[in-house]
């Protein structure tokens, strides 16, 4: 058999490295390697061979020896056709059937995931509607908001409270607490804010209570570090254990019975490092 009787299928050389160049339109995968100091090879693989793959194949290697003489090495191999027996075909059909079932199961899972995602998207849209409604509800309940220089935020409620427990509950409803004034700077910022947002209440409850002879913040339970009492305050009577800012006295600090129900107060709520996610109505 002459070299002209063969059709070139693939080649590999030192210039293309490990890349096999194919010259056939059949579904063939080519791999190979050219190693000047080791073994070199070329391999062709038919995924779904037909009768056209049957025949004689020639592998030709071109090179030179150590003194520059050309070397040409040829080798022949044959590919025969063997008709598969019935058991082989049945096993192959069984494998394909299992693969098809696995693919169908995966498609069912994807459809289920799609249904779950659709449900989650609907719930997300519903939550957004609820959040918008809650935001409007919060706007009704809360009078004003402002940010302090130390990254705290404050809300002045629109709900009247007759005692400290009711006022604290208003703040707790929004994951906050009654304001704790810890410095003159903070006091003046809050005072200016309250004067711009005056109310018809007697005053504003603060988050401080007297324990024995010591005033402590109710939320942090630290000792109160800043006072700006009105004249004659705090009242020496034993039951005057709560603190508020009185509008009629230019928002100076007053002591007052914690359980009194004769006057109406507003709650000034504090939210450290406040974000919009903190309001849960």
TrEMBL record:
Return the InterPro entries for the record.
C-type_lectin-like (IPR001304), C-type_lectin-like/link_sf (IPR016186), CTDL_fold (IPR016187)
Q: Which Pfam families match?
A: Lectin_C (PF00059)
Record key words, sorted: Coiled coil
The record's annotation in PROSITE patterns points to: C_TYPE_LECTIN_2
Signal peptide annotation = none
Asked if the record carries the keyword Chloroplast, the reply is no
Which residue numbers delimit the C-type lectin domain? 149-258
Q: Which residues form a coiled coil?
A: 86-113
SMART domains cross-referenced by the UniProt entry: CLECT
- What is the protein named? Uncharacterized protein LOC106077505 isoform X2
What is the species of this protein? Biomphalaria glabrata
Its gene? LOC106077505
């Amino acid at each position: 058999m002459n070299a002209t009787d063969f059709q070139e299928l693939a080649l590999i050389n030192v210039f293309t490295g490990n890349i096999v160049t194919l010259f056939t339109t059949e579904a063939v995968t080519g791999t190979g390697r050219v190693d000047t100091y080791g073994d070199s090879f070329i391999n062709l693989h038919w995924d779904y061979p037909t009768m056209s793959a049957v025949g004689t194949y020639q592998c030709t290697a071109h090179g030179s020896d150590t003194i520059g003489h050309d070397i040409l090495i040829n080798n022949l191999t044959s590919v025969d056709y063997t008709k598969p027996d019935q058991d082989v075909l049945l096993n192959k059909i069984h494998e394909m059937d299992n693969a098809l079932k696995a693919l169908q199961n995966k498609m069912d899972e994807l459809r289920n995931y799609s249904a779950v995602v659709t449900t989650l998207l609907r719930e997300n849209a519903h939550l957004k509607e609820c959040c918008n409604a809650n935001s409007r509800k919060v706007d009704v309940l809360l009078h004003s908001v402002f940010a302090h220089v130390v990254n705290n935020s404050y809300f002045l409620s629109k709900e009247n409270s007759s005692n400290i427990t009711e006022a604290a509950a208003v703040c707790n409803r929004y994951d906050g607490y009654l304001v704790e004034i810890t410095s003159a700077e903070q006091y003046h910022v809050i005072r200016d804010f309250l004067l711009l947002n005056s109310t018809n209440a007697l005053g504003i409850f603060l988050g401080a209570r007297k324990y024995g002879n010591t005033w402590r913040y109710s939320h942090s339970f630290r000792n109160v570090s800043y006072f700006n009492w009105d004249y004659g305050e705090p009242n020496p009577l034993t039951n005057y254990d709560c603190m508020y800012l009185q509008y009629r006295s230019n928002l100076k600090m007053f002591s007052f019975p914690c359980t009194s129900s004769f006057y109406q107060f507003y709650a000034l709520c504090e939210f450290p490092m406040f974000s919009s996610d903190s309001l849960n109505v």
